[in-house]
UniProtKB/TrEMBL annotation:
<keyword id="KW-0813">Transport</keyword>
<keyword id="KW-0067">ATP-binding</keyword>
<dbReference type="InterPro" id="IPR003593">
    <property type="entry name" value="AAA+_ATPase"/>
</dbReference>
<dbReference type="InterPro" id="IPR050166">
    <property type="entry name" value="ABC_transporter_ATP-bind"/>
</dbReference>
<feature type="domain" description="ABC transporter">
    <location>
        <begin position="7"/>
        <end position="238"/>
    </location>
</feature>
<dbReference type="InterPro" id="IPR027417">
    <property type="entry name" value="P-loop_NTPase"/>
</dbReference>
<dbReference type="InterPro" id="IPR003439">
    <property type="entry name" value="ABC_transporter-like_ATP-bd"/>
</dbReference>
<dbReference type="GO" id="GO:0005524">
    <property type="term" value="F:ATP binding"/>
</dbReference>
<keyword id="KW-0547">Nucleotide-binding</keyword>
<protein>
    <submittedName>
        <fullName>ABC transporter ATP-binding protein</fullName>
    </submittedName>
</protein>
<dbReference type="Pfam" id="PF00005">
    <property type="entry name" value="ABC_tran"/>
</dbReference>
């Protein structure tokens, strides 16, 4: 990495209770400013645990995490977290616009600036026409867009996303993936995005870190994906990347219909 990393993780380990296995063991990762870093691993390997550590929501067992040249010791305004379940992350008694305004208001941002931020981020996620609706009146995709706008309105350096699209139907998910790439390109935020979906990882990431199973989960590779956006799953280079990543989890070659012999 030639530029100074935004975040550096060195020899990070985590166990939840004394005398129990390490969930994460010796995690090492550098993330460049502006990267779209995907964390890809099997269910239960500790992806959410790693995100919670980076978010400062839980303490590490050992190792170091440095963000913007400061050690991570707790939650901070420099990080914003987008959760899988947007419904529980939003305040149901506030409208879409009020949910987005919540963070800036808490941070005592002046009313005019707060209104400007709300307008800007609602426009960015395509929700201007729905700003007066309440969360119960929104679709799954709209809920997730609201959550993204709400987090972005706090203008964090790092957007931390924990399987944000996994509860959505396939069509909405594809649309949200495309929209997220546009949001990322427009805001130039650094994103850490957890998924266990290999296709989603190759569609989105500039970098894809491969996690092994827990206990003692670690990162065995961090692929730089050289493909331009928007990416097409039918592109030969996409398929090559997919197969390379897939090989970490399913060593046998993928059998395609045209390869199956009668
Ligand atoms: N608060 C906790 N106390 C004890 N063990 C925990 C706690 N939270 C998670 N774990 C354990 O840590 C391991 C990793 O869990 P984690 O949720 O981080 O994995 P994950 O990769 O995000 O899983 P998934 O993809 O299924 O969401 C699991 O064995 C889980 O049971």
């Amino acid at each position: 990495m030639t530029t100074q990393p935004l975040i550096t993780i060195n020899h990070l380990s985590k166990r939840y209770a004394p005398q129990t296995d390490l969930i994460l063991s010796d995690i090492n990762l550098e993330i460049a400013p502006g990267a779209f870093q995907v964390l890809l691993g099997p269910s239960g390997c500790g992806k959410s645990t790693l995100l919670k550590l980076i978010s400062g929501l839980i303490p590490k067992t050992s190792g170091a995490m440095v963000l913007n040249q400061h050690s991570i010791t707790g939650p901070g305004k420099d990080r914003g977290v987008v959760f899988q379940n947007a419904e529980t992350a939003l305040f149901p008694w506030l409208t879409v616009a009020q949910n987005v305004a919540y963070g800036p208001k808490m941070n005592k941002v002046a009313a005019a600036e707060c209104a400007r931020k709300v307008d800007y981020y609602l426009d960015l996620v395509g929700l201007t026409a729905h700003k007066d609706k309440y969360p119960t009146e929104l679709s799954g995709g709209m809920l997730q867009r609201t959550q993204i706008a709400r987090v972005l309105a706090n203008e964090p350096d790092l957007l931390i996303m924990d399987e944000p699209f996994s509860a959505l139907d396939a069509q909405t998910r594809t649309q949200m993936q495309q929209e997220l790439i546009q949001i990322w390109q427009q805001t130039k935020k650094t994103i850490i995005f957890v998924t266990h979906d290999i296709q989603e990882a190759v569609l989105l990431g500039t970098d894809i870190a491969i996690m092994t199973k827990s206990p003692n989960a670690s990162i065995t590779a961090n692929y730089q994906v050289e493909l331009t956006y928007p990416r097409a799953i039918t592109d030969a280079r996409f398929i090559t990347m997919f197969e390379q990543v897939n090989g970490h989890f399913f060593p046998a070659p993928i059998i395609r219909p045209f390869e199956v012999s009668a």
